[in-house]
Write a structure and sequence with these properties.
ATP-binding; globular; 6 helices; nucleotide-binding; single chain; Phosphopantetheine adenylyltransferase
């Protein structure tokens, strides 16, 4: 069984995330959307809201599982028998950052990271940008799935 983990804070999930997840689906029997919990980070959306956003966004997709985890992502992958990590790349800075993490993860665990380049028209979307637009009462609806818009 080909299983991958797509980790993140998903605070909130964006159309960039959903693009990568949908494009990765044909490659795997299961994709686990895993919200990493970090008590040192201040989130805009509660863990329950973020879980709901993910579950609602992919409720029609039987190959998607949504859960949370603590600790190292590679340890979670091992617990789940997942041989791959999924990551999205928007720009060269993402590549450099994610490459170092991917190489470290592989050295620690033998788990490969697959990088997906964001689709045209989505490279400007990030959860950080969405949160900033929300905080300043701007229009963020074109960057997130319906479930986040309704929140």
């Amino acid at each position: 069984m080909r299983k991958a983990v797509f980790p993140g804070s998903f605070d909130p999930i964006t159309l960039g995330h959903t693009d990568i997840i949908k494009r990765a689906l044909p490659l795997f029997d299961e994709i686990i959307l895993a919200i990493g919990t970090n008590s040192n980070k201040n989130y805009m959306f509660s863990l329950e809201e973020r879980l709901r956003f993910l579950k609602e966004s992919f409720k029609e997709e039987p190959k998607i599982t949504v859960t949370t985890y603590k600790g190292l992502t590679v340890d979670f992958c091992k617990e789940q028998n997942a041989g791959f990590l999924l990551r999205g790349l928007r720009n060269a800075q993402d590549l450099e950052f994610e490459k170092a993490i991917g190489q470290t993860n592989y050295k620690m665990s033998g788990i490969d990271t697959l990088f997906f380049i964001t689709s045209s028209g989505k490279s400007h979307i990030s959860s950080t940008v969405v949160r900033d637009v929300i905080r300043n009462n701007g229009n963020y609806e074109f960057m997130v799935p319906d479930v986040v818009r309704k929140n």
